[in-house]
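Annotators were shown the component list below and the corresponding predicted structure, then asked to write short factual statements about the assembly.
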Amino acid sequence: ELQLVESGGGLVQPGGSLRLSCPASGFIFSDYWMHWVRQAPGKGLEWLSRITYDGSRTTYAVSVRGRLTISRDNAKNTLYLQMNSLRAEDTAVYYCAREASGKGNWYFDLWGRGTLVTVSS
Amino acid sequence: SYELTQPPSVSVSPGQTARITCSADALPKQYAYWYQQKPGQAPVLVIYRDSGRPSGIPERFSGSRSGTTVTLTISGVQAEDEADYYCQSADSSGIWVFGGGTKLTV
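Structure shown to annotators:
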């Protein structure tokens, strides 16, 4: 079964750090580019970051550049998101998502269920 | 960076046609995609490459483009179509973006 399962969310104080994980199963993880997307409570989807299939290149939304770091371990079939200097506005459900294969297919064809990050004192 | 603009809400009666637009000053040359999201669930792709329909998505869902505006059309809306809908695209530098989302009320 195709699956992405985020973990690592929780309550963290402002200024703190958190590392999210997203193990993948049911497909060849190393064949796919991967992303992180978040959704603040009652708000819309916000794209955060993308990483190539081999981890050699990363791209970030301007709003999070410098505070979030995406990475992957293909040997462990796992995607990560390191979040530093967290702020209240980072409170959201964080999703990992798989980018569809094929040239020009710039969409997500598999999503995890999300993990909630709450930044509060 | 650019923004994709959607109406915050659209309301239709069952059986009617719902149209949700997504526009930008300069919608990227890349295609636009549409997702449906129901409360507590992850988004589901309903339209790809402006007008393609993934397998398993009902025929009442369709997409179109006119210039810098793409439109998601749901014909013969059913109660189960009530959800939030998001358009999404990407630019050539690899920056992806979502529209602000449209709440469809049936």
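Statements collected:
1. The mean pLDDT of chain B is 93.
2. The two ends of chain B are 34 Å apart (CA to CA).
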